[in-house]
Amino acid sequence: MQIKHGINLKKQEMWILIIFFIGGIPGVSLDNKVSLTLIPLLGTASIIWLLKKEWLAYDFNLLKSGALYVWVGRGITYCILVQAFFTIIFGLESTSAEKTSFHYVIMPVYIVTGAILEEIVFRKILLKLSSYPPFWLNALISSSIYAAYHFTLSRFISFLAVGLILCVIYKKSGSIAAPIITHIVINILGLIAMTLRN
User: Fold this and answer.
1) Which has the least CB within 10 A, 66, 76, 136, 151?
2) Which residues are listed as membrane-spanning (predicted)?
3) In whole angstroms, what is the distance from residue 194 CA to residue 187 CA?
4) Closest Cα partner for 123 from 177, 57, 56?
5) Cα(158)–Cα(156) distance, rounded to whole angstroms?
6) How many domains are there within the chain?
7) Does the pLDDT at position 113 exceed 90?
8) DSSP state of 130
9) What single string gives the DSSP state of each residue in 134-193?
10) Could you tell me the CA-to-CA distances from 30 to 48, 89, 164, 198 in Å, in that order?
């Protein structure tokens, strides 16, 4: 679907954005065990179904590429450094999802589904939403929405920087798999850090 001012959005991408952002409304999806469990799983299943042609056409042999994992390694390193830097400066405030999900067995599922959903939305769809601005402006817009989506003011800059890193990883690797894998690893490391902190 072509919308005014150079914004490109396919019908399936529009549905993905609707499913994702409705499922992430604070007070709806993050405040209880049932919604925290079901919404990410249903959202992931819906998005996989909407993208089934792309999933079926995807060459999973690309996951064996050494170049992909070079970008994943760089992404993990840069994300850890950025998060450590901003944690030292601003302290660490947990997001509402982290506060709620930490106490539930669903956390490992949430770590994976959250990363997949967020990378599809913020990198695959929103990063290329507009055909007019240059990459860095699109990356800044996508990453700003990503940071705002996490609903924590004190970590906004940290999430913005991580979002920009994931945008670069996506562009340089040429595959959505690289930022998804990076994001999952960062989430796992975050869970380990939260566990040790508590």
Assistant:
1) 66
2) 12-28, 71-90, 102-122, 153-170, 177-196
3) 10
4) 177
5) 5
6) 1
7) no
8) B
9) -HHHHHHHHHHHHHHHTT-GGGHHHHHHHHHHHHHHHHHH-STHHHHHHHHHHHHHHHHH
10) 21, 27, 25, 20
